Amino acid sequence: xxxxxxxxxxxxxxxxxxxxxxxxxxxxxxxxxxxxxxxxxxxxxxxxxxxxxxxxxxxxxxxxxxxxxxxxxxxxxxxxxxxxxxxxxxxxxxxxxxxxxxxxxxxxxxxxxxxxxxxxxxxxxxxxxxxxxxxxxxxxxxxxxxxxxxxxxxxxxxxxxxxxxxxxxxxxxxxxxxxxxxxxxxxxxxxxxxxxxxxxxxxxxxxxxxxxxxxxxxxxxxxxxxxxxxxxxxxxxxxxxxxxxxxxxxxxxxxxxxxxxxxxxxxxxxxxxxxxxxxxxxxxxxxxxxxxxxxxxxxxxxxxxxxxxxxxxxxxxxxxxxxxxxxxxxxxxxxxxxxxxxxxxxxxxxxxxxxxxxxxxxxxxxxxxxxxxxxxxxxxxxxxxxxxxxxxxxxxxxxxxxxxx
Length: 405
Hints:
By secondary structure, this protein is α/β, with parallel strands linked by helices. It has helices at residues 6-12, 39-53, 78-88, 101-108, 132-145, 165-169, 180-194, 209-219, 233-239, 254-264, 305-315, 337-353, 362-370, 385-393, 398-401, and strands at 18-22, 57-61, 92-94, 115-117, 151-154, 176-178, 200-204, 225-228, 268-269, 273-277, 286-290, 299-303, 320-324, 356-359, 380-381.
């Protein structure tokens, strides 16, 4: 895939020019409004710093949470502006609106190397409108912030699978380039999707089979093994006839899982034991059980230790690994061992077997940081869960495709 890149823009020259950057700052916040995982902010820094060093007047746009098209202090980007100021070592001003008077005044007042951030683009309902004209009107306003000599840099990989105003429509209105993050993501995922070295092992977790059905179908013909864990494994186990008791289950997907087992059974690797708990609580009584041994009324929030060992054995010979989705409820310490064990097995395969390992964003990336694992132990940690899955499924990502136009 041939993209115009940030380097192309820098070669043209950005000194004194306004550059509008669409970043992904959709970071998790705690109840006090503090950022608990700054991974996406950290990933955005190389592009921003390169523009600052080039003398650009940098205008950042992003979303946070789901404010449903109206201003909501809970979803303000104020914590992001503060974190960016600390990370860049310079003040990053936050406009009080998205494309209103304050945003324009601040954009007009920028000097070379300055950075500002407009408020949450999803405060404006036109950002996610289905109507192209509504999105276009909002994109016109965003583009106007960059003035006559402006440019657009797409650097929020976590949103490039969405046809939204600040991602897609604005790229039609300004000279558009892929930022360092988007360029790297596309390069890595393209290699994984089109030319993986074998054995190629895919590890899928998360809560719902329906969320991963497309990628299972797409990768079953390419991968040598597909390891299934997380909440989605219980629907597969139910399809095999096991009583999963109160474990997460998509009953409407049981027949689909039966079909997948019939067609790809030799490639699908399922848990062989489980961790059962009396209730969904970190303090609940829990024990390792066989697949048919979940006590009546209990649930399973994680895979068992023998499953981790078997999954690790499969991973130990892999040359390419793609992982998307935790193996259990890693946010609760008693139920994090499955995710931690599988993640460590991927790190070991990367170090010992030279495997090319990709963590497919989302909760997988969050679990790596939450569990204190070595991020450098993986070849690549994606910043876009949904985007990386859709890329591997072979779907066109609107926010990437528009950069080729």
